[in-house]
Amino acid sequence: MRKLIALLSAAAAVAAALGGTSASAAPKAATPEDTGQGKLVWSSCNDATTPALQCAMLDVPVDYAAPHGRKIKIKVNRLPATAPKNKQQGPILLNPGGPGDSGLWMPAYISGQLPKDVASTYDWIGFDPRGTNGSDPHVICDAHYFDGLRPDYQVSQGTSKAWLTKAAGYAADCAADWSWLMPHMTTVDNARDMDSIRRALGAPKINFYGGSWGTSLGSTYGQLFPSHVRRMVLDSIVGPTISWYDHNILQDKEHQRRFDAFAAWTAKADSVYHLGTDAAAVEKAYQQVEADLRTNPVAAAPAPGKIGPAEFEDTFYGGGYNFLRWPRMATALSAYLTHHDTQPLSIAYNRYAAPGADDGAFPAYNAAQCTENAWPRDWEFWKKDQAKVNASAPFYAYNNMWYNAACMFWPYQGNQAGRMKITGKGLPPVLLFQATEDAATPYQGGLAMHDALPGSKLVVQNGGSFHEILFHGNACLDDTFTDYLRDGSLPKGTGRIAKTCAPEADPAPVYVTPSPALTAKTAATPLSPTDPEAVRGVLR
């Protein structure tokens, strides 16, 4: 009955394109030292590749204003320091972004990217944000929300009502089952969980590395608990003041630039892909395939369902995060148009876009973004405003709009005052990394974070486009990170940009020969975050 009432409310919301109830998302003042957290009881993670990895579950309060009230559990793992005690530098908490992405892969991977004399001095701590992955409970709203075929993203195709219904239904589904937790899944709540982890570890201070939304998480933690920060690294930065709605518009514009760059790269390789010798021809080829899929969707096997225009767009937008995908993307277009071969497209879809097991990240994404600041609640506003965006950035505008449309109906009205103000007061020097061509966290965010954090040092990769720019083999970037973790050394530059690094070279244009048929298990499993083609810390 409760879910039925919520879904009936959603139907009414679609009619009015307005949201539900109002709840303040204003950041709470810092709580006393007693946060009501439990204890960490470590046991082996039974990880064959990293036997030293230890796992635990940590009880934390749902609401930090009531620290001894209802509890949930956060899954935490640890790769302990192996250096002599007098050389150890304490725990470093790790977060890849999302919001809601698992950080359990990070201790083994990131420590493995560093010289042993540095890696051995830290306790590497990964965790699953509240409500996601291995934490308990694992929040699932509509487990089939991303199943194909999904409605066409383009409003010109008459699918707006279908998407409004889906988005409102998703928000209602979250409210029906998770009303007790949803208002407490903001960045502030997750930052307080980090301090509960610190307390449970018995550490007076923590170190931190975060990418993408993890930069918002880290800076929020630093604002709440500056005296608990020893060192902090933020990679691919969310601007500290911009609203999430406006941030998405910036993303649209930057994704268009990255798609234009992909088209230009493909055009230079016409002898390989035969899609035209100028970017406009390649973009026309992309549009031609999408138009054909509207009437002739192709099998998604081994993933279930078919690939229509929405699935097609999702297969390609990730090229804005990771240009190592470009050869496979160009191959998919070329095979479809020049050989009537859909297999490369199906393989690319399975690698990049097919929905896997629900990890709780999408509910966490909505719970953070929809609640942290006010969103427009009127569909007429969205329709007119997004049409302006689409006029100059059509590649991603409507895809991104519908991904975020649940915020139009979110039952917990966003904080009118906006996101927590970041001042950096009391923080040690923070090391910042930002690429100028990052589509997910645009360059302006790195500049704004540097301006907000006195004493911070900003390292810019001029022409770089990876989202999360460390650990791609760029010595200029990675060595700066290593030096800071080794002994706190920072770039010597005194201007707004303390250090500039060169970008990686574009990938070689090769026709990617289709691999053997993927198994059903592979289709249901996203790329590992450590795969070179993976997109880490997706901030849609």
Short description:
The chain is of the alpha/beta class and 540 residues long.
Q: What integer is the average pLDDT?
A: 92
Strand order of the largest sheet: 1-2-3-5-4-6-7-10-11-12
Which of globular, elongated, flat, extended, rod-shaped describes the shape? Answer: globular
Distance between the termini: 33 Å
Extended strand count: 12
Element order: H for helix, E for strand: HEEEEHHEHHEHEHHHEEHHHHHHEHEHEH
Low-confidence stretches: 4-8, 18-32
Q: Quaternary state, please? A: single chain
Strand content: 5-15%
- SSE class: alpha/beta
Radius of gyration: 23 Å
- Helical content stands at 25-40%
The helix tally amounts to 18
Most strands sheet = 10 strands, mixed
Task: Provide an overview of this structure.
This protein is α/β, with parallel strands linked by helices and 540 residues long. It is 39% helix and 11% strand. It has a ten-stranded mixed β-sheet with strand order 1-2-3-5-4-6-7-10-11-12, with helices on both faces. Strands 8-9 form a two-stranded antiparallel sheet. The radius of gyration is 23 Å and the shape is globular. The model is unreliable at 4-8 and 18-32 (pLDDT under 50).
